[in-house]
Protein 1
Amino acid sequence: MSLLWVSPIDMKRSAIFYSRHSFQLFSHHLNLGFPRNHLQLLVRRSLSRKLYSSSSINTRPFPDYSPKKPTIKDSELVHQISKAIKLRRSEPLCRILKPYESKFRSDHLIWVLMNIKNDYELVLNFFDWARLLRDPNLEARCIVVQIAVASKDLKMAHELIFDFWSKPNLDISLSFTHFVDRLIYTYKDWGSDPNVFDVFFQVLVELGMLSEARKLFDKLLNYGVIVSVNSCNLYLTQLSRNFDMLGMAIKDFSEFPQVGVHWNTASYNIIMNSLFQLGKVKEAHLFLLRMEFKGCIPDVVSYSTIINGYCHIGELQKVLWLVKEMQMNGLKPNSYTYSSLILLLCRSGKVVEGEKVLRKMINQGVYPDNVIYTTLIDGFCKMGNTEAAYKLFDEMESQKIIPDFVAYTALICGLSQTGKMMEAERLFNEMLKKELEPDEVTYTALIDGYCKSGEMKKAFSLHNQMVQIGLAPNVVTYTALADGLCKCGELDTANELLHEMCRKGLQLNICTYNSIVNGLCKAGNILQAIRLMEEMQEAGMYPDTITYTTLMDAYCKTGEMVRAHGLLREMLDRGLQPTVVTFNVLMNGFCLSGMLEEGERLLKWMLEKGIMPNATTYNSIMKQYCVRNNMRTTTEIYRDMCAQGVIPDSNTYNILIKGHCKARNMKEAWFLHKEMVEKGFNLTVSSYNALIKGFFKRKKLLEARELFEEMRREGLVADAEIYNLFVDINYEEGNLETTLELCDEAIEKCLVDEARNGD
């Protein structure tokens, strides 16, 4: 059945919507690209269906209740029991009814209930007493369920039904038929409240007996009873939790209105979520519009479901438009809405915009949770901006939001990738103290970080610790270790590690080979790396873009641009597509070789081919123009970069600041310094040195001193010339204590280091 099917009940109300003009608005609003004639055809088919009315069905009446008649002897016993329990005061029933226990049967229970059914509390007490003697028959249980519902005690009715269906070794098929028959049989004389069937339907759904629930739904239609929309929603929800039943949920949603079920906003939300799970986001959006024409007002959940769907397929503009629309409709986005939007922005590399959304939601009184903070922390870490990630981590703790192991792992990964291993280790130890269990990803991130910084002893120590606590190192872990060994020149050990991987049954993948190729290239063994690439092909593992890019980088760094070009041609002949990293490698090679014109031609070609450069691409060119003291061209390239929507990174700012300082453009340098600090980036040592010297030359001692003190607070070491300048200034100002302190610091940090380097 088409998702656009219009039930006859709503035809009159929807007539305006299905006019020609409305179709144009409908299609334009969604921008789904559906041809107008296709939509019209679907609706014509829907409108041509015969009107189905529940009143046209010949419903049968509920049967009269006609229980077995008691004998004179049974009647006397029932009378005695009824009288005894009615006249009781505070005495417990078990004491009063003790004389009747041996003669009591299930039939007696029903006959007594007939006498006391108007006293609900007494009914429950008596039923509990009877249950202690023996399990009551199905008819008696259904009678008490009917009385409970008639007394508006739906909770007790639910408990009595649930208790029956939770019995072990129950024949579901037989019991279902009997239970339904008994419930229908006792309905007319014992309660006549249709809520009893609602409660039964809900219990079946909660127990996962969805097939039986649907059978009950259909059977009740014969008696003119329609299960409530809330119970139907519970049924749809359970169906939607099983991926294989999503189609059934959508089908039942389409069919139920034909027999009188009037869906509400919650119903549409369930189906929109089902469509989203099936990957049908645009169809779900159609439902959002359809529900408005059905008289159901979309709520925050409705919009958030569609927003989350579009976030998953990366349609940012639609997401932003929907957020705006829901606000125009007076709906306030909730934490779930913002969480989806922030996740999409982070996935799109727009982490700074994601943090702006965080600030906006806080200002609107919507408080972020652990997931939102962790998403942003991970986003900033992947950008390499661990300072911004750390600020969010600290903010998270100050807001009494306890970081979980995912948040710690994200930050540890970011710190490890940027070589800040002391901080990563501190966080790891803090994580262990808080009894948060690190996983393979946490350990592998630390191991990779130590390998990159050449601390192989610590890397293998973590590997051993990982194995001791029962975590299995994977291919990524071993690849990091092999890569680290290659960088340290321990190629034989790396080779042994590869054999160990094979012995453990780990399949060597392209990443493993690429790490070894990279390690060999870093160690200057390019020929050995080429031989390994040939061995890869013999083993059936073909080099990929990363393999070729790694080898090209090695040739570019040695100035062998002809060979680098040769690898690019070979790569293209094999049908491999170069990435922006590949072009950055070539760009860096051109710039290092002084071939700036070739670099600019490459940039122009990339833009013409629709290959978007990143900050690294532009940084290589700008750095060389700064070296040549050509700040006019550098500034033009920087402006072009921003015009292309490429966001400057930390290197961009440090290159520009040093270039402007060298050209004595201190206003420009100071402005860029302020801008980069606002964006969470830090100056490098060489940038601090350049700024301080630049301000000295311009006689701007206040700014120079401020930067020098900031540099010292950051634990960075200025060069000897700057120490000499400040020693002289403090001596002339009569600050002897500071002068001596700076002298000691200069000797310890500058002269000792120089001596060590000289050795």
Note: The mean pLDDT is 85.
Protein 2
Amino acid sequence: MVPTTPSPTHLEDELVDEFLWLEDIHGERPKEWVQEQNQRTETLLDGPELASMTERVLGVMDNPSRIAAVTKHGPHYYNFWRDAQHPRGLWRRTTWESWLSDSPDWDVLLDVDELARTENVDWVFSGARLLRPRYTDGQWQRALVRLSPDGGDAVRTREFDLGTQEFVAGGFDVPTAKSSVSWVDADTLFVATDTGPGSMTESSYPRQVRRVSRGQSITDAPVIFEVPVDHAQAAVYKDHTPGFERVVAMDLVEFFTVRTYLWSEEQWVELDLDPTVSVDLHNQWLLIRPRHTLELNGIEYPAGCLLAADVQAFLNGDRSVQSVFTPDEHSSLEGWSWTRDHLILNTLHDVSSALYSTVPGEWELTALPGIPPLHSASAWAVDDEDAKVGNDYFFSVTGFLTPSSLGRGSLPDLSGPDADGAADSTARKASEPAVLKRAPSFFEAQGLEVTQHFAVSADGTRVPYFQVGPRELELDGLNPTLLSGYGGFEVSRTPGYSGATGITWLTREDQRGRTGVYVIANIRGGGEYGPSWHTAALKQNRHRAYEDFAAVAKDLHRRGVCTARKLACAGGSNGGLLVGNMMTTYPDLFGAISCGVPLLDMRRYTKLSAGASWIAEYGDPDVPEQWNYIRTFSPYHLLSAATCYPPTLIWTATSDDRVGPVQARKMAARMLDQGHDNVWFHEATDGGHAGASDNRQAAALHARSHEFMWRMLENLKGR
């Protein structure tokens, strides 16, 4: 179902926005409105039941038996950890032998809670980038630590001494902004940040990259790379791989359009490929993954395949490539990782994971074992430059009813020194992967099962979806069911364990003693079947994602899992746009909706926060021909006082600097103004696009959303 094309008069009416005043994010009047709406929503939902549920979810998120995933740098394994005693978190490290134990001995590098108290800033840890030891006498001594003051994308980047475990006095310090900062050497950085007028793109990201020397002001540093203001972002980094050092620049024209340049003979040399192609430079290899059919040397290669070429030969004009992976109608490539002598591929087959390894140059795929059906798995190199463990890899496995596990294996050593004697290797030669850590179970899964089904969309496309619920499910339409989806930016929704969802939905009982059913729809716009699955729902074809989601809802009705009054749907960000369209275009299919950090005003989305960077996904509303189709999936403009909408919770965060809070505000305000008193709004003050800066906030957000939907399905008597 697609809304009809409006008349010119209606188009003029759509340009009238009576709630523009809510776009003043920190204005006093909007803040008062937000406080009033927060109080109204809290009055509805807050109480002993929600408080108890929040504490149970927080217990999952803070549980000390969670797996402490690590990344290896030199002899140490690094981890970031939050728990009840450290809600802002600890950045820490340990040795391999200690990590294997039940109680690792952690060396705490940075206590973010203590830093926040000392500096009186609610810092949120956003990652760290370590400097290679060859620049500091063979020791891992320095890092660039990224800290957000409110959980948003804008961060402050500060130089940190791993030895003294303190920030370097007078060291590198890039002020809070949306920025990209990386090491060149011990005394030089590549910095892309806000340096004043003209330095940022219309998408709110840096358009200039500077080479900054120690002690030099960023504004005094020379600009080494620059992109037009209407492009999305500029970035430069140095590949520090010994023997393959190079400087790479990227002009992110649009979200999936990137021009890649190499610095050669004092100038930038563009990699001569279609800019919609994804590229990876590793040692002597160039990997190419096309988003559309690609022709090289008169041969056509399908979208979503993976090709390999010699970097230098390619730069010299040789377009010979070797095929590494070729998708079919059931399979897609999710990602890859390099060990010293191998390439590991993470793939999907009908949205279930399959892992492979291959030897560069030979490219024959060998399956990695241990992946059960209807599960997600990934594998990645431990440290491809380590002489002892360069072919070791980590792997993780998870499923809807299977808590995550983390293991390690080793692929055959084909070059370099013998791996014998490696203190932290789980294998000296090739080995079967071994599971080393398992996360605890947080809900009773006995009696539950995972099944996969296929709905038929409006154009005949088969759309897969996962269903999690009782094994002996009564198909009488009375089961409280939650349908989740995303359908954008080639993001795949794959199986994964959520103790929180297990508590708040799968094992919760309604008045009939029924427990919840949880469903994930793998709609077009996502990446479940590769780039073609994504591009099928771009711009003027956006309605296909919504038709797919509606088809899954109808299939749940048809199969007797639930009726409309027993079906809720939830989504965030682009998924918020998805469920916003469910509310406005398919209101009769649902009994409750939770719409988080959403895009909703597609007329002004390019003017708000990072919206301009998503034109390739949705289209440009400033182009009349494109607005003519964009307005058919702009929920803010599809609202009608005459339509009966399902109960809806719209939630966001003041500090969200990616989508921003104003679209959610205006949507709720217009609905209330039209007389829809079954819409509620809630806005957190910090937390950024995630809506939460610590586990307590995340637990409260999850519990509030699920409590709202459950309560609405429980109380809705009919439509």
Note: The CA atoms of residues 203 and 612 lie 5 Å apart.
Protein 3
Amino acid sequence: MSRDYKDSVFLPQTDFPMRAGLPVAEPKILERWEKIDLYRLNRQDGKGREKFVLHDGPPYANGDIHIGHAVNKILKDVIVKAQRMLGKDAAYVPGWDCHGLPIEWKIEEQYRAKGKDKNAVPPVEFRQECRAFAEGWIDIQRTQFKRLGVTGDWADPYKTMNFGSEAQIFRELTKFLMSGSLYQGFRPVLWSVVEQTALADAEVEYHDHTSTQIHVRFKVQGGVFDGASALIWTTTPWTMPGNRAICYNPELAYVVLEVGAVEDGSLAQVGEKLIVAEALVEAVAKAAKISAHTITSSFAGAALEGVIAAHPLRGQGYDYDVPLLPGDHVTADAGTGLVHTAPGHGEDDFDIGQKFNLELPRTVAGDGTYYPSVPLFAGMHVYKVADAMCETLDKAGGLLAKSKLVHSYPHSWRSKAPLIYRATPQWFISMEHGDLRKKALQAIADTRWVPEAGENRIRSMIESRPDWCVSRQRSWGTPLAIFVNKATGEPLRDDTVNDRIAEAFEAEGGDAWFSSPPERFLGNQYKAEDFEQIMDVVEVWFDSGSTHSFVLEKREDQHWPADLYLEGSDQHRGWFHTSLLESAGTRGVAPYKAVLTHGFALDEQGRKMSKSLGNVVSPLKVADEYGIDILRLWVVSSDYSEDVRIGPEILKYQADHYRRLRNTLRYLLGAVQGFDVKSEKLPFDEMPELERWVLAELVELDSLVRNSIQAYDFHGLYSAIHNFCANELSAFYFDIRKDSLYCDDPAEPRRRAARTVMAILLDCLTKWLAPVLSFTAEEAWGYAPGATGDETDSVHRQLFPEIPDEWRDGDLLAKWEVIRGARRRVTSRLEVARSAKEIGSSTQAAPMVYASRAVFDILETVNFAEVCITSNVGLVPLEALSQEKVAVLSAENEGSGDFHAVLENSSGEMVTVSGADVLVEFAKTEYARCERCRNHYKEVGTIARNPDLCFRCDAVIGG
């Protein structure tokens, strides 16, 4: 009966649990971080270092965080932690966007539920309720962001509603005012008739909408086209009262189409003549149910110069001429090639109106109803007027065709209601005054964009954008604190007045504008009765676009410009965009050196998340079920430069990946338990080649870590770390060295080398993983040898390890690539034998390995049996085999562990080797098994005092 040697084997031991239990463990770690004030310690550790500043784009304070918030905040946290561990002073100041319509809308809803009239409430009281609402949600979101493992200055975040912030936002606005860039204009803006305010581009969503599309005749008055009708097409019938012109393209080909026959139900008249673009004749005929027609004349658009038409409702209050005017925006892509032009209801229309001095009529009020002055349609709502408009046009003989069209249409991102273009008096920042557009475009060129496609995207937006509308007709926001001279219509430009306003805002917030008499600000220089006090507020995108001025420039832990702005790709038209314009307009350059964008979070099928689909993934529920480290791993392992997908199956997959990483840390913790650096560490120059190969791999991985962090490519980095743990370590190095680790004498150099390298691996991996697996790395750090036990000790106070350059060895890496390839050939062949139940363990095998000369020369330099974990390996040059033997073995080895590697042969030539250069012939060992190490050796059974042991185990056990 053999002895039980279990107690003599040095099995890995650690209290680091195999099962993570993250939902329970993570909150405890958070409590500890709070207790020791980890962020303050990080700030102390970073004093004197080079700063790295990621400026936080402010989320909106009005609801629980969603998965998009998680992607954004986790990425920011990973980057900041990584930069800090690179040796930077990397502060993170979170912030919130607090003003704006969503919060105002919520308070109004509460009022409506109570039967309360908002207009009866003093503005300051209403604003205080909005402020309290925002503050409440900030407290909730702060706790939720902390649960994501995000470390930052949560005790002192920035808020756009802070008094100092409101004062600085106003100061930034006055820079445009004093330079003459800020002006009051009357022009079309995207307008919400539900919320009764102008909206910025970034507040607009595009959804499918069913519109009534109509073709309308405008009778030509005199000239060569007399008797014909200029035919227009529009999907907004409600804009017909605002029509003041028709546009054509001078370069397009046009025709006069004479109707020859019509289908049943057609509104076209046989014999009538219509002017349309030549390319759109068939489309017009189909839409108007014209079954036969002839072309009576063809001509270039320039021939339409000077043509005058009549509004189809002439004689009913629309008794003005409608000129045909040239416009480069006219195309033959759809419609008729003649564009209905209402200067108060479209940007191109407005530009044409300005160019040709057209009337800019006021037709639609803020609530979407026509003004009383609008003939025929006064008081009707633009959303509901389509049928009445068509009926009226039809009776007047103007309507040629109508139908329904489903198309993409702008909607409010808050009310989800469709928007209209409406000319209103608003305050604008000019894109041309002071060369703002030119400065912004240069700033874009000077900025690093990640990914690079972001540069073209924002450049095209800046190139084509109209003047920036910065006023809103609401109550909750930074006041647009301007006085306008009643006599001249000009805004008051006086730094003394501006300073008084800013000082009041600093002390009391923007409420001071609504609660103070104008004399407080105007002083003795001006009479209050001579000025109108503007009661608009500044649009929220100007608020957030100004954050750089009261965060980066005002706080000691920041610097200007930021090293990085990071948000979702939609912020090219949002925060990136407005921050660029605000800074370029006031400082001439962008407030950031680099901009990183990430995609949106979709479900596993690539669909947008919505409650109706039941596919919403809540980060807080993920925390309760899996733990936040699983979510953090998902964020960095996804290609976040594009849209990312998440759902139950993807989370399970990430949990499996996480377990592999955790098991690697756990194995290393057990392997190095009790490791004493002073007595046990083995010098590099005494290490076996296998250990030196691992260290050479660490050099490469360290370089990848540092380069990836600078490139913001965490997707590739953490895939590489995972693969290193799974392939180079677990499947190879650990597999080989477990025998030495478990069974060698503790003083044996080979075991000391393994323990030394595993201690280095543990240190590197724990630190490299810390920015991503923040909780797990912290937990592992507490179990590592040398852990101080100091309550303020944390992996998040460490720097990444400095890897000695002497470990670098490209030749060794190339050599071991060949060895590992040959090993895969062996292990693949042994798997066949194991499946056939010829062996149980690889140690029962003693295969013959036939290798080409280049590979053979390498394999002879190592203990290849140890590498393959076999009893023995016979090495024979491949050239020694007969062709018949090669053919047989090639068939047996086909598809087994194929590999490719490039190496230098004995003649100094670079050659490529592959699986074909290694053939394996299975053979079973004849040796007995050592009962301690479970390996098979020739000497087992020959040692008198321990006949069931090998020489190595006998030496460890003794007599």
Note: The radius of gyration is 38 Å.
Protein 4
Amino acid sequence: MAEAHQAVAFQFTVTPEGIDLQLSHQALTEIYLSGVRSWKKRIIRLKNSVITGVYPASPSSWLFVVIAILATMYTRSDPSMGLIAKIQEHLPVSQSMSTQCQAVVSAVLFSTMLWLLLIFTMRLCLKQLLSYHRWMFEQHAKMSTTTKVWVALVRIFSGRKPLLYSYQGSLPNLPVPAVKDTVKRYLESVRPLMDDTEYERMTKLASEFESSLGNRLQWYLKLKALWAANYVSDWWEEYVYLRGRSPIMVNSNYYGMVWLLDYLKPHFWYNRIPGTVIPLCAAQCERIFNTTRTPGEETDTVQHWQDSDYIVVYHRGRYFRLKVYQAGRLLSPREIEFQIQRILDDSSSPSKGEAKLGALTAGDRIPWAKARAKYFSSGVNKRSLDCIEKAAFFVTLDDDEQGMMGDDPAASLDRYAKSLLHGKCYDRWFDKSFSVVYYKNGKNGINAEHSFADAPVIAHLWEVRSTEVNLLGYNTEGHCKGEVDSSLPQPQKLNWEIPPECEEQISQSLAVAQALADDVDFHVFSFRDFGKGKVKKCRASPDAFIQMVLQLAYYRVSGRTFCLTYEASMTRLFREGRTETVRSCSNESSAFVRALEGGETADVCRRLFRAASEKHQQLYRLAMTGAGIDRHLFCLYVVSKYLGVESSFLKEVLSEPWRLSTSQTPVQQVELFDLVNHPEYMSCGGGFGPVADDGYGVSYYIVGENIINFHISCKHSCPDTDAHKFGDQIRKALNDLIQLLSPNPKEPSKPEESRPEAKKDK
């Protein structure tokens, strides 16, 4: 094969005259340029490490301090108060060094120490400032004097032009809530889900835990919080994700649909409030590329490599290694298109057992771990598997066509979502940090593994990628503009030697994965009657509004019951923060839903909605600022397991099912372009599978001012759930609530009485 020959730097043959050494100048040049690229990246990493290491100061500020101190030496003043002289006395220098030279060296050393002390002080001050979160609890557009002073101080102590990881050393640690506060909030959250007898029993269990075992477990947790950067994240990654033995396809991985943008925001994570920006932890960004989840019999591990200059592409059962660097530079879009076309034109057949090999990553983890150890630990299989796992990311060229199309665009969106979530169960590599899927008709999407990072991280990456795509130029024939280097090597097809026993395991894993995929019921729809613009005109939080909609819709579709509801929030205001749970079903939300469905007056329902909305926003703020319920209880449970003690309270809390799991798809850049005049830039967002076998997974995506997209999942095997019926109830609840909050004065004061359900309930 041509690519194999180009990979050899030199060849030699034995002749009667001796050894004939033949050097390949092209290969040697490629090796040299690859080395140059590698060293350039090392230098850039070192430079960035220095810049972020001294942040919020800058390297140039060191020179300013040195010059300032040296200048004082000529004015016969001593700002060091004798320290420079002390350093000079103990300076281990050669006798040949003059006294003046020793003084200069001592001054430089003192200046450096002073500079480092100033950096440490600024970081400490910034860390204390970033521990202030009262601004989140203030009324919209009403900033207190304390917060105004805080904003000014943050701007003073924050450096200019921060890089992605500049704020990492200044972020505060996640605080450990008091046991009594967590228990109190927990009991409040489950009250609408229990009758009096059940609630009294749970209250007794909680009281016993709080007064006895809870304090002991809390002591260990505080000790960990003092020692570790984050007392939750490592245990969350290990026990919630990596120790799961069921398939990660559907159960853990999530997806995002195509997204087009024309602008890119600054490249560090932040929240915005008037007058300043609040940095978010960027630790999860470190493992976006060159990362894979490796299966194990007891627990999986996340492996990350420092660098990779290629991707792996799957097409029609074959795996190809595609280098994205040539002669020390990144390939141009035109060259990548050219290389992809080479793969599409390749007529070779898959190796025996290769076509459905990816099913191993879609099935149960233990069989995959055993197969990996037995069949992929040596030889050609190990080399090919290493190639996939060490790739920057994975790409699937799918021969299907997806997107909103055909005579039934609604059903086509459902198929699009299911395809991104699980595909054919063997044409994705679910262990990779993320896989990009390109369809025959040009639509695309992403499937992401969950253990290494949460959805906002991948969503930001997806937006950046789409921004760059939108900035590309195309010629009249539809190809990317630019030229192609004629010396580009062919993409290298990976080789496999799959024995019959491994093929049998592939078939078994595929059967498990296929049954799981077939059981997923998905419904995606775009609601365009109104959006957050109209909701905000009703003086309501868009997120709280949608959460009340979901509570109302679930109440109706489930037969007038409530359930434990999970809404994901982030804790990246803290170092190495990930997520926290907002328990959206509250006493206030259930009171509102019962009043609306019970035929109360519009004024009463509006008052109860306001209370429920304010309560939800309060719960969300508490979760974001480290005062949530579930991560604290989870960590207390882990400590109890390490200590070998049982807690009936914790065991029951951790076993409660989340029948309604919800999440808002994060958006960083949608407000930077005109969706009204350019609707082609709209994305449907992304989604995930159901968390409970008898529950729903709901992801919603607020696009611009007038569109809300929903992704609903459940399981066909549960007779009590139906994604399309739930979608219908969500649409109805959206319209009912907006009518309630902005009633027409000409209509009766009880608009809900016109609904058949309301009359039936009476």
Note: The radius of gyration is 30 Å.
